Amino acid sequence: MATIIDGKAVSLAIKDQLKKDIAEYKTSTGKDISLAVVLIGDDPASKVYVNNKATACEYVGITSYTYRLPQETTQEQAEDLVSSLVNDEKITGILVQLPFPKHLDENKILKLIPANKDVDGFSDENIGKLLQGKKTVVSCTPFGVMELLKHYNYDLTGKNAVVIGRSNIVGKPMTALLINANATVTVCHSKTKNLAEIARTADVLIVAIGRPKFVTEDMVKDGAVVIDVGINRVDGKLVGDVDFDTVSKKASMITPVPGGVGPMTIAMLMKNTFIAGTER
Ligand code: NAD
User: Fold this and answer.
1) Ligand 1 center to residue 215 CA distance, Å?
2) How far apart are CA 54 and CA 37, in angstroms?
3) Domains (ranges, CATH) in the chain?
């Protein structure tokens, strides 16, 4: 039976450390760390995420400002708000909660956020730095996966890592982080042939596709480390992209859903907000 990676405990440890670091920073510099969160529309999941982010900010000592705009917000209104936050000196980090209502051009709005206020690691500059192995703000979820592996003392050097999923938010930054940590990385996606065969070569298998229980035990090597990023709602329950019950019998370590990668994402957002706020 695999070791169950406890994302809740690790995320709490990270937030507790941050709480100390932020308090120390504020005392020594007299400066504040702040996060502006922009929520547009009525997406119920987004509302929950935004509330969770405000709660986490309060816990670690980051001043949070939440801007809630109605569903019918125009592109111009959304851009005006984000631009005003960019120019507001009291705001050190900006996050726009995705997805936006369909009539808005997300990319145009995201592009307004400069690298030094980008707490999601989505800006071209921060992605470029990541690819070059330079210190930067990295997309929260893959950053959280790396912290989990570090916490469990897993050395990636020379390991075969397979990432399933190539999104800009998870799969691609995950791939760069693994390469930077000296793993040998293969990326699979919806057009990959022989995916199961490739997955079986993984010492570390990271799955981020959004397909409930897609990875089954026949796709996993004995003793592999399995990281399940997926969050799917099935019959009112959260399930991952990995069939936990069977795969956990074969893996050496595995993340559960919920309680694995999920809690890490917010903890890393807090860390990114601290990095963005202090390295100006
Ligand atoms: P996405 O939809 O942007 O990308 C999915 C990727 O999976 C694509 O690259 C696609 O090529 C690949 N894919 C889809 N079907 C596939 C298949 N049958 N075989 C192989 N590859 C396939 O998704 P995303 O934003 O990267 O999110 C992926 C999952 O991770 C979702 O379940 C999402 O909810 C979850 N997620 C969780 C967190 C967290 O905090 N834990 C954060 C972000 C995303």
Assistant:
1) 13
2) 8
3) 30-114 (3.40.50.10860), 140-262 (3.40.50.720)
